[in-house]
C-alpha cells in the first residue's frame, strides 16, 4: 500500500472510532439533559400533539405509556442505544414521523446556510488576510485587526439583529426571515460569515506573512522567479495549509452559531428544529439532532484532514 493511501486509511479508521465515541457520548449527554429539564415531558409532548386546548391528564398519561416515559431512565436510554445500534434514530414523539426523515430535510437547509457562510467568510477573509500579510504592520493590517476584534466581540444573535434592522427593515433590500428564495440566504449567511472572517482573516494574514519571510521564498526570488509567480506558486500554497487546517476549528463555531442564527432568522434548518424539539420535549428528536450535529463535525474534520494531506506532501508519509 502506498504511503498516501496508508495515511488516508489511518485517518478513516481514526475518525470512524471518533464517530462511535461521539455517538455514545452525545446520546447519553443529550438524554441526561432532557431528563434534567423541569416539568412533565408527557404533558409537553401531548400539548405538542393535540394542542394546549385539547390536552388533559388522560392524554398525557396515554402518551406516557405509549412512549415508555413511565419506565426508569436507564431503561429508556438503553432502548434508544439499542435502536441506534440498528442505524435507526426512532420516531418523533410529537409528530410520529421517522427522526431520520425530519433531520434529512432540515440538514439540507442547514448545509445550504453553512455553505453560504463559508463562501461569505472566504470572500472577506482571503483578500483582507492576503493584503495584510503582504505588508504586516502597515495601515491595512492595523485596520483589519481592529475591525476583526470588534466583529468577533459581537454575539451572533446581536449581529443578526443589527443586519435585519439595517438591510431588511430600514433599506428593505432582503427578506427578514424564513426561506422562500435565495434572497433569504444572504442575511443569515452574512451573519455567520462575518464572525468566521473576523478570525480567519488573521490566520490568513499570519500564514502569508510567515511564507513571505521564509528562506525558500527568498531562494525562489534569487533563482529568477517573478514576484507574481513566487506568490501564486509558492507563497499561497504554503500559506493554504494552516488556513485549511483552521477551517476545522471554525466548524465548531459554525455548528454552534447555526443554532442561534437559524432561530433569529426562522431558518428551517436543523438548529431551528432542535430548539423547537427541546421546548416540545421531543427526546428522540433532540437526541437524533444532537447526534447528527456531532457526527457532521467529525465528518467535516475528516475532510479537512484529507485536504491537508493532499496539499502538504509531508503529511502523506507521516
Largest sheet: none
- Helix/strand/pairing class, anyone? mainly alpha
Shape: globular
CATH architecture heading of the largest domain: Orthogonal Bundle
For this structure, the CATH topology of the largest domain is MetI-like fold
Number of helices: 12
Low-confidence stretches: none
Describe this structure in words.
The chain has helices at 3-36, 41-50, 57-67, 73-85, 99-134, 139-153, 156-170, 183-212, 215-222, 227-264, 270-279, 283-311. It has 318 residues and is mainly α. The protein folds into two domains: 1-94 and 280-318, no CATH class; 99-272, MetI-like fold. It is globular and about 85 Å long. It is 78% helix and 0% strand. Helix 5 packs across helix 8 (183-212).
List the helices and strands and how they pair.
Elements lengths: L2 H34 L4 H10 L6 H11 L5 H13 L13 H36 L4 H15 L2 H15 L12 H30 L2 H8 L4 H38 L5 H10 L3 H29 L7
Question: What keyword list fits this structure?
Answer:
single chain, 0% strand, mainly alpha, 318 residues
Gist of the model:
This protein is an all-alpha fold and 318 residues long. It has helices spanning 3-36, 41-50, 57-67, 73-85, 99-134, 139-153, 156-170, 183-212, 215-222, 227-264, 270-279, 283-311. The protein is globular and about 85 Å long.
Amino acid at each position: 500500500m502506498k504511503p498516501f493511501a496508508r495515511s488516508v486509511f489511518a485517518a478513516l479508521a481514526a475518525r470512524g472510532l471518533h464517530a462511535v465515541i461521539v455517538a455514545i457520548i452525545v446520546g447519553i449527554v443529550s438524554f441526561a439533559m432532557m431528563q434534567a429539564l423541569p416539568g412533565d415531558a408527557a404533558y409537553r409532548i401531548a400539548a405538542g400533539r393535540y394542542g394546549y386546548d385539547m390536552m388533559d391528564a388522560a392524554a398525557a398519561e396515554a402518551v406516557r405509556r405509549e412512549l415508555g416515559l413511565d419506565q426508569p431512565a436507564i431503561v429508556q436510554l438503553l432502548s434508544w442505544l439499542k435502536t441506534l445500534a440498528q442505524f435507526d434514530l426512532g420516531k418523533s414523539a410529537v409528530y410520529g414521523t421517522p427522526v431520520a426523515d425530519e433531520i434529512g430535510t432540515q440538514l439540507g437547509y442547514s448545509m445550504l446556510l453553512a455553505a453560504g457562510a463559508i463562501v461569505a467568510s472566504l470572500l472577506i477573509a482571503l483578500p483582507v488576510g492576503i493584503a495584510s500579510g503582504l505588508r504586516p504592520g502597515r495601515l491595512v493590517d492595523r485596520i483589519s485587526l481592529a475591525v476583526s476584534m470588534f466583529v468577533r466581540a459581537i454575539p451572533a444573535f446581536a449581529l443578526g439583529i443589527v443586519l435585519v434592522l439595517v438591510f431588511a427593515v430600514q433599506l428593505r433590500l432582503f427578506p427578514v426571515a424564513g426561506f422562500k428564495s435565495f434572497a433569504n440566504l444572504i442575511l443569515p449567511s452574512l451573519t455567520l460569515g462575518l464572525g468566521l472572517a473576523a478570525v480567519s482573516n488573521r490566520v490568513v494574514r499570519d500564514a502569508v506573512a510567515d511564507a513571505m519571510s521564509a528562506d525558500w521564498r527568498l531562494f525562489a526570488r534569487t533563482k529568477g522567479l517573478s514576484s507574481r509567480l513566487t506568490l501564486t506558486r509558492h507563497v499561497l500554497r504554503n500559506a493554504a495549509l494552516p488556513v485549511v487546517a483552521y477551517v476545522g476549528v471554525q466548524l465548531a463555531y459554525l455548528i454552534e452559531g447555526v443554532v442561534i442564527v437559524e432561530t433569529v432568522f426562522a431558518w428551517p434548518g436543523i438548529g431551528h428544529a432542535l430548539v423547537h424539539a427541546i421546548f416540545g420535549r421531543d427526546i428522540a428528536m433532540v437526541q437524533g439532532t444532537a447526534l447528527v450535529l456531532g457526527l457532521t463535525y467529525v465528518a467535516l474534520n475528516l475532510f479537512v484532514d484529507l485536504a491537508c494531506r493532499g496539499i502538504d506532501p509531508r503529511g502523506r508519509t507521516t
